[in-house]
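Person: Show me a sequence?

Helper:
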Amino acid sequence: MGKKARVLLIAACACAAMAAFVLFGCSSGSEPAPEPAQPAAEQTTESSEAQAEQESTEAETSEAAEDSSSAPATEDPVELQLFAANSLSEAMNAVQELYTQDHPWVTFADTQYEGSGTLNELLGAGSYADALITASKSTMDTAVEEGYVDETTRFDMFKNDLVIVGGEASDLTDVALEDLATGEYTLAVGDANVPAGAYAKQALSTTDPACWIAADGATGSETNGKEGTFDGTPLEGKVTEGSSVGNVCSYANSGDVDCAIVYSSDVYRYGGVKVLSAVPADTHKPIVYPAAVCTVSENAEAVEEFLDWAYTDKAAQQVWQEYGFELA
């Protein structure tokens, strides 16, 4: 190859190398091609979904804040002390348990269940109670007169009835009030501190001949059933008086007496007795259980709330009914 041809060949190679370098450099330094733009419809859909999600989150946050603001404030612990008629014990314990389930900050001290007269005696001796529930209007009247309760908080909670019962093992099946005037049966009733006993004596004063004689000569609902005697009646020497309706029922259950006069609710409360007959309601005063807040109570608002709940709550009402109590 001649000298001129070699020069031309070298020049051609140099030009080719330079062209390749220029092309490579431009390619590596350029920006990547942009992706195709999304259609407008897709952009609108994504925007709507994002907005809906944001609104949903805001709504949930607002609802949670609203629930939090409407939730009840934490209550301070409170312990309530009740004085209640002995005949209420089983039902009241069940109702208190229901209440503490719904109101965990409330507890109950050892509720005192005694004859209504005995409860008044305890209050008179300085015992503390937040509320009093008696088994007669007369005993609550006494509590008001003595200043043991706030009369403005008083209301009637329950009604009850009297029945004549015998032991379940007894052969007796039907003994009416008038049958007691034959003197053939022994009987148990409550003493002067037990309202059930007063109601029973009122009823016994109406038989012919009278099985109980009031000191003032009155009969039935006209007498208080407290001052009087069985002496000179068909039941003289045949009556055992108990300090509570529980004791009265136990005398019949054990066979110590043939019959006992108790509340109809006591048949549900105590085992071992059966109903021989109902005592006519017109032979005694209406049997009513009044309740009131005690004047010494340091938890007046809390105990009023409990009494109201115990009277109006459906679950509580069912308990009272199961134990034979009728709301007043």
User: Anything to note?
Assistant: Residues 39-71 form one domain. The chain has ten helices and 15 strands. The chain has two domains: 39-71, 85-328.
